[in-house]
Amino acid sequence: MVNVRSWLVLGTFLFGLVLGGSAQAIESKPVLTLDMAKKIADACESLQQEKGFRPVNIAIHDDGGNVKLFRRQENAFLGSILVATMKATTSSSFPFTSRLFGELAYGKDGAPGPVPGIAELSGHAAFPGGIPIITKSGAHIGSVGVSGASGDEDEQCAQAGLDAIADML
What we know:
By secondary structure, the chain is of the alpha+beta class. 47% of the residues lie in helices and 15% in strands. The radius of gyration is 21 Å and the shape is globular. It starts with a helix and ends in a 5-residue tail after the last helix.
């Protein structure tokens, strides 16, 4: 006859293996930390000030599209709060820039876009200033969206933020 205690020991051992394997998978996933988000925002602001761009709003999202950090400079346009968030949403939803999203929707240089209807996605922005945050191993861990200056200047600020954490990716 089988010993009940032996079955309990075996069951506990197998259960531990299953949980241990799951925990390791979760722990190994790269994430966007608050420290990284702060460095991104600091670098965005530094470039904005150095270049004399209009004040900006900076939205940094994690890989689930959730706000990790938001920063609004003094006198940044209030309407740009939503725009920065939309740019970050775009680049956390897709592993490419909001500029490319616009080109897919509307084409480049007046040519029709190759993805009809993509511009209709609610809460997404089809203009420059949103950039995905992708690790060196190719993991998409979040995004940064900047708005308040021109689209090109917003994108420069976002890129400066990513450059500031390149060694952390």
